[in-house]
């Protein structure tokens, strides 16, 4: 069985900033409890089945949206919850203990809705955001291409303007939700080479010229489909462009700053659950006449895992607060949080599997799924190598 709950104070520590009033602290504890309960009751019992049968759990996500988790940091006037980035991190960590793959998709969906809410005009916000916040409709983020992953500014998908429409041609790769979702936030080239030639279009499912590749067969993240998204003379109204021409790359990167905190928070949830699973296993598994919990080497390993988890959480929460407050350090901190938390949390999950011995490699035990689902977090939303580039560039260009 998967693991969820808030059994230990140390494992649920989320370090609200000291300046926050006590009532805000209480609200965050309530959000956390609601998310933990939803993860335990609605996600955890189905996590293995969603993985093995590759089920996209639409109805469960719509239940989560009824709790306000479809547009967590989207403004309330279009159906969002209007919560902070710190609140969002707390919620995604808790949900991820129930199913990391499903929560990771929800985090991408939230990022897309926020992009429309933040950069869209009144008509666009009112058209798209309410159905996305309720998860009546689902969204996908389309940046990566077969030939441009880390080098996103070199994307080739083109949008040529003809009257009141753009004619979109090209393809996007590794798109979460691709083919099963309703709204595609697409980065495309409307101008010259480089980041300043990129614009952002919202493409609706059913648009002529929009098609999808085969469903990818993945190591993890199996509760969300991944496909190529293909545009062949796809006619998209100019009215569906977010912001002005040439603003697309800036919109994409601002979305990703939050996306990096979101995916780091999902990593925290997987690690959180894995520490608890490891602890429970050590308490019951006997070897050499004694439970593993009395083996000092394993005690120390468990202590290191818990310490890495809390250290990762504190960095992620600090980055979330910096982004919310629009601090100059926010971009670097988001990159640091994504780099550190996804690396450390993968190590935690992998160590938890090792503690299970041969049982950890069986699909009857949840720990292997956390390992498989969390591995891709070191790659997406900007690889961890790119995170190192961003951090070092900012350090080396500081006055």
TrEMBL record:
**Catalysed conversion reaction:** (2S)-2-methylbutanoyl-CoA + oxidized [electron-transfer flavoprotein] + H(+) = (2E)-2-methylbut-2-enoyl-CoA + reduced [electron-transfer flavoprotein]; propanoyl-CoA + oxidized [electron-transfer flavoprotein] + H(+) = acryloyl-CoA + reduced [electron-transfer flavoprotein]; 2-methylpropanoyl-CoA + oxidized [electron-transfer flavoprotein] + H(+) = 2-methylpropenoyl-CoA + reduced [electron-transfer flavoprotein]
Biological processes per GO annotation: branched-chain amino acid catabolic process; lipid metabolic process
For whether the record's keyword set contains Flavoprotein, the answer is yes
Indicate the segments forming the Acyl-CoA dehydrogenase/oxidase C-terminal domain, all copies.
246-396
Q: Relate the protein's function as given in its record.
A: Isobutyryl-CoA dehydrogenase which catalyzes the conversion of 2-methylpropanoyl-CoA to (2E)-2-methylpropenoyl-CoA in the valine catabolic pathway. To a lesser extent, also able to catalyze the oxidation of (2S)-2-methylbutanoyl-CoA.
What SUPFAM superfamilies does the record point to?
Acyl-CoA dehydrogenase C-terminal domain-like (SSF47203), Acyl-CoA dehydrogenase NM domain-like (SSF56645)
UniProt lineage? Eukaryota, Metazoa, Chordata, Craniata, Vertebrata
Active site residues per record: 381 (proton acceptor)
Name assigned to this protein: Isobutyryl-CoA dehydrogenase, mitochondrial
Its EC number(s)? 1.3.8.5
